[in-house]
Specification:
Layout (H helix, E strand, L loop, with lengths): L1 E12 L19 H15 L8 E4 L3 H13 L9 E2 L16 H7 L1 H9 L12 H21 L4 E6 L1 H12 L7 H5 L8 E11 L2 E9 L3
Parallel strand pairs: 1-4, 2-3, 2-4
Antiparallel strand pairs: 1-5, 5-6
Protein name: Histidine phosphatase family protein
Pfam families: His_Phos_1
InterPro entries: His_Pase_superF_clade-1, His_PPase_superfam, PGM_Phosphatase
């Protein structure tokens, strides 16, 4: 006996922030007015594509994501069956001692190290920072947990409010599953603030085991 489900997961990157051009990982940065507008515009466009049924709303706990997600849950309760949840796996990469510093100051103070990191983030990590390998393990474990929740719950659609590093990791995983992210996904792919991606998962249950085939849709 077999069973089929289609899961749909939307990922929205936070909008631009008020504290300028910095390496923004775990630094708590508020959204700018433009950033809030970018996210509301993305939501309005997304509404035109949503399947029937309520969504699971999940956000990074960092305020540039959770601020918008909390407002969305409050102002649009008809779209969500359960209250906003936050998940640590949706947080941005931790840039360690470089976190929160401007790109200009990093390039001036650590020209060789920043050049190496920008060219090959998989094999170069800021001092005391999170490696891309650690990011990959964190994000893929969280993704697997989310898919299980959607498979066994009543909701089969989710909206994740998150960060560029998380979205790039999942893009790489969809294109090259089971392998560490490609450098080009991090340093050669434009992902604007307020971007929305869609991942559809065709899930087939055969004899109690689910087989899932994800498909990445590039934006909407």
């Amino acid at each position: 006996m077999s069973c089929y489900r289609k899961l749909t997961v939307y990922l929205m990157r936070h909008g631009s922030c008020a504290d300028g051009d910095i390496l923004r990982g775990r630094t708590e940065s508020p959204l700018s007015e433009q950033g809030e507008a970018e996210m509301w515009n993305a939501w309005r466009e997304l509404c035109e594509h949503l399947p029937e049924g309520k969504l699971l709303l999940l956000s990074s706990p960092l305020q540039r994501c959770s601020q918008f997600a909390d407002g969305l849950a409050s102002e649009m309760p008809e779209f969500f069956d359960s209250p906003l949840q936050t998940a640590d796996w949706l947080q941005e990469l931790n840039f360690g001692e470089w976190d929160g510093k401007s790109y200009a100051s990093l390039q001036a103070d650590y020209p060789k190290a920043t050049a190496a990191y920008q060219a090959d983030p998989l094999n170069h990590t800021p001092p005391a920072g999170e490696t891309v390998r650690e990011l990959y393990r964190r994000v893929t474990r969280g993704w697997e947990s989310l898919i299980q929740e959607l498979l066994h719950g009543e909701q089969h659609t989710a909206l994740l409010i998150t960060h560029g590093g998380v979205m790039r990791t999942l893009i790489s995983e969809m294109l090259n599953p089971g392998e560490l992210p490609l450098n080009g996904v991090f340093n050669g792919l434009e992902l604007p603030y307020g971007s929305v991606l869609k991942i559809e998962v065709d899930a087939h249950e055969v004899d109690g085991e689910w087989e899932c085939q994800p498909k990445l849709h590039w934006q909407l």
